[in-house]
Specification:
- Its EC number is 2.4.1.1.
- InterPro entries: Glyco_trans_35, Pyridoxal_P_attach_site.
- It catalyses: [(1->4)-alpha-D-glucosyl](n) + phosphate = [(1->4)-alpha-D-glucosyl](n-1) + alpha-D-glucose 1-phosphate.
- It comes from Solanum tuberosum (Potato).
- The chain has about 160 residues and is an all-alpha fold.
- It is built from eight helices and two strands, in the order αβαβαααααα.
- It is elongated and about 65 Å long.
- Strand 1, helix 2 and strand 2 form a beta-alpha-beta unit.
- It has two domains: about 100 residues, no CATH class; about 55 residues, no CATH class.
- The termini are far apart.
- Helix 1 packs parallel to helix 2.
Length: about 160
């Protein structure tokens, strides 16, 4: 149920400054590029079980802005497409948020706050460019060159051959 982390790794290798939760490949990316070059939002892994229980028990109170976004989607502003499945995945059939497996509603306020930090960093083009360069430089671990070199040494027990 998770998107492939290799896409995020490719983003980092190409200088993308990511905004994300601390799960999947993002954990490793953030370690490699530096936490100061990654915009983090959302619940931490150790909080998830408790938050899901809170949601299942009907104790989750949604942020008003999240409710406004859902209403805007329902309004037809994005066309006549039926968004019931999307909204249902966030609300469930038995009360608000019970089907929100990925805790989108819970993470929404944190995302908004984090996006404000992204905006601030972007306005400082020197800082933004530095962060972008450091993302590329810090993502060497994810390159196929590193992987092939490591496999050749540690798994295949072969040495590189110089081609004239």
């Amino acid at each position: 149920m998770e998107a492939s982390g290799t896409s995020n790794m490719k983003f980092a290798m190409n200088g993308c400054i990511q905004i994300g939760t601390l799960d999947g490949a993002n954990v490793e990316i953030r370690e490699e590029v530096g936490e100061e070059n990654f915009f983090l939002f959302g619940a931490q892994a150790h909080e998830i079980a408790g938050l899901r229980k809170e949601r299942a028990d009907g104790k989750f109170v949604p942020d008003e802005r999240f409710e406004e976004v859902k209403e805007f989607v329902r309004s037809g502003a994005f066309g006549s497409y039926n968004y019931d499945d999307l909204i249902g995945s966030l609300e469930g059939n038995e009360g608000f948020g019970r089907a929100d497996y990925f805790l989108v509603g819970k993470d929404f306020p944190s995302y908004i706050e984090c996006q404000e930090k992204v905006d601030e960093a972007y306005r400082d083009q020197k800082r933004w460019t530095t962060m972008s360069i450091l993302n590329t430089a810090g993502s060497y671990k994810f390159s196929s060159d590193r992987t092939i070199h490591e496999y050749a040494k540690d798994i295949w027990n072969i040495e590189a051959v110089e081609i004239a």
